[in-house]
Amino acid sequence: MRIKYMYDEEDNMKIDLTESGFPNYLEFRYLYNDLELRKEYADKLVDTETLKKSFLDTLLRKKQLIKKTDLFKASSVIYYTSVERKFIFNRFVQGKILEAPKGSNYQYLTSWSFFDVSHNRPFVCFLYFNYEGKSIEKDKDKIYQVLKESADREMALNTMAYTIDRKLPEIQPKHIKRIDLGPLHNVFAKDENEITHVILSSIAKKEIPIESYALSLKIDEVFSGDTFTEGGFFSKQTMQKWSDVIPNKYVFAPHRIIQLLHNRTPEVLHKLAKEPIQMADLKVK
């Protein structure tokens, strides 16, 4: 998206006004549209070798700056040749059903993610469960369908757990975890979140660079306990009783931003499940 809008004088990237900090969801739909039209646009774009020769001639022989219109042509070439479906947020993505590690108190686990348009943030969910049917392979499509229809948006986690349990009598959910990715606190954010406000005001005062950011993350969990019976004589179903939702909040940020938040909003950090996590310490496998 940075490449797409870098030299575009007629259009700007749409930023969401909710507690998000992510580009508006429409921008992700536009990426899909561009992906479908990629070949059509690519055939109309200026040849890269021609552009390179033109740029070199302008810079080295004419000693002039390159025009914005030519820079836009170059960025368009890069954009339309680099955009790929696998890097675009999908509205809903279903993970596979996997067998649990040995020693676990559940048999299977699955995951799914969704982008909630009302919050303009991505969520990732995990379901840990036992299975009482005859074949998990035969029932997996039904499980996937229920998750897509009933757990594809942000809602009370107890409600999500009850709905999954009711619609899938062959499984016994043991534990549901939902990760709320956001808001992303950066220069584009328009919300009134305290962390966002600190970062924006510090950027305005030139205390920190314009690319400074922090990422909030919340993990909600519920666990099953006792069971109860629901329904009539001919349609009884054993359901799970769920614990209260257990919420935990985290913040990820560079070291300089963590220092800034300790100085400006210590009361916000005191509510976190653990000290802010420094981005440089994260190891991606």
Question: Which secondary structure elements does this structure contain, and how are they paired or packed?
Answer:
Blueprint: H1 2-5, H2 25-36, H3 38-44, H4 48-61, H5 68-82, E1 92-99, E2 108-116, E3 121-131, H6 136-150, H7 157-167, E4 171-185, H8 194-204, E5 214-230, E6 237-242, E7 246-253, H9 255-264, H10 266-269, E8 277-278
Parallel strand pairs: 7-8
Antiparallel strand pairs: 1-2, 2-3, 3-4, 4-5, 5-6, 5-7
Mean pLDDT, all residues: 89
Portion in strands: 25-35%
Structural class: alpha+beta
The helix-strand sequence is HHHHHEEEHHEHEEEHHE
Our measurement of the CA-to-CA distance between the termini, rounded to an integer number of angstroms, reads 26 Å
Number of helices: 10
Molecular shape = globular
Number of domains: 2
Tell me the radius of gyration.
24 Å
Number of strands: 8
Poorly predicted spans:
none
Give a short account of the largest sheet. Answer: 8 strands, mixed
Organism: Polaribacter ponticola
Protein name: DUF2971 domain-containing protein
